């Protein structure tokens, strides 16, 4: 009877060692998943992708925007998100996350391409609306991480980044109004003959 118990016990240990060996061989075990909870890892990946997109969209807007408000917003977004992206990258590397996105996914690439085809007041209006929508999502995600995240460094990062995101949202909302006003009255920053639009 005792030997049957020992046999079962040794089999259990054997299965445990096989499973442990499988985990040890997994490329993810020594990386991201081993050091971060799933929700923290999701936040890191999404924040990195969002930051990448907002920097590239901001660089485009800094060149193409026609109103001073939208240009200023774009420059703020590029500066602040570039800084935040570096901070996030440093934290992620310290946690063993080495596969942060370095290029846009198809969803964000489509948005950038759509934006690049526009010009004048239409560009300003569309870019500003995109930034309103994106920053509302950002704020929600960063608030969630700041309040419910498992990793202390990421919680602190999310919390410290929120004021800039709120500022960007305010600027984007003002930019939407500014661009709408410019398109309704005919922007004097354009060398083209302003089109008559309903007022």
Percent of residues in β-strands: under 5%
Please give the number of β-strands: 0
Shape: elongated
**CATH homolog superfamily of the largest domain:** Ferritin, core subunit, four-helix bundle
Name given to the CATH architecture of the largest domain: Up-down Bundle
On the 0 to 100 scale, the average pLDDT is 81
For the record, the count of structural domains works out to 2
Helix content: over 70%
Order of helices and strands: HHHHHHH
CATH topology of the largest domain: Ferritin
What is the first-to-last residue Cα distance? 93 Å
List low-pLDDT spans.
6-34, 185-199
Supply Rg.
Answer: 24 Å
**Main sheet attributes: strand count, strand direction, barrel closure:** none
Helix vs. strand class: mainly alpha
CATH class category of the largest domain? Mainly Alpha
Number of helices: 7
